[in-house]
Amino acid sequence: MTRSQIGKVYEGVLNQLKSYIEYHQLKPGDKLPSERELSEQLNVGRSSIREALRAMELLGLIETRRGEGTFMRAYRPHHMVELLSNFLLNESRTREELFTAKQMLEKEVVMRLLEKLNDKDLDMIEKIIENKEKEKLHEEFFQFLFERSGQPLLLSMWQFIYGFTHTVHDIQYEKSWYQKVANVLKTGDQIKVLQLFSS
Asked: Mean pLDDT over all residues of the chain?
């Protein structure tokens, strides 16, 4: 069998597994059938099933628990990006450009939300700043802002770029920085937004 044919078989098994998961409406935490059962149900070899499951595990879509089986897991958008970044981010210039792009997107979402958040949103921001541990604060803070912006494409772009930059930059600010951003969201001062993202 040629490499091209092997690739087509492999893709076909992945598509069958995808259809199986959709048909049975499997959710994070649900258990997948064993390799043998999947092989029989999908009418493909166990080795092909095993390879497809490995690929799905690498992508963070499933997890294997020793002695328990294989389970669906919540997709983490950064997981695959972190793996890819180890191969792709070799040029320091590329890293700096990604960091700049991330800052531009974050500045844009703050600009879009100036004086547009309600009291409930602002309370939630205060809770995130107050309760989140330092290493998770940046991600949770901007994840919330991008979700509230109603711009799913911007959210996806930010998640993708953040995933890359997170692997090469230690993105941490003091809580006082996030508090300043929260205050600007209330007051609508565009000059202060530019100042906050200028460093």
From this structure: 83
Ramachandran quadrant class, 173 (left: phi over 0; alpha: psi -120 to 50; beta: rest): beta
Structural domain harbouring 64: 3-72
Q: Is the pTM of this model over 0.85?
A: no
> How many whole angstroms separate alpha carbon 94 and alpha carbon 112?
27
pLDDT tens sequence across 112-160:
999 999 999 999 999 999 987 888 899 899 999 999 999 888 888 888 7
| Residue that terminates a domain, selected from 41, 72, 103 | 72
**Cα distance between residue 117 and residue 110, in whole Å:** 11
Same domain, 181 and 98: yes
Q: Extract long-range pairs of 167-174: CB within 8 Å, 24+ residues apart.
A: 167/81, 167/82, 167/85, 167/86, 167/89, 168/85, 168/89, 168/95, 169/95, 169/99, 171/138, 172/134, 172/135, 172/137, 172/138, 173/137, 173/138
β-bridge mates for residue 62, sequence order: 72
Instruction: Give me the DSSP letters along 61-102.
Output: SEEEETTTEEEE----HHHHHHHHHHHH---HHHHHHHHHHH
30 and 120 fall within a common domain: no
Note whether 64 and 70 are within 8 A (CB): yes
Q: Yes or no: say if 27 and 72 are a contact pair by the CB < 8 Å rule.
A: yes
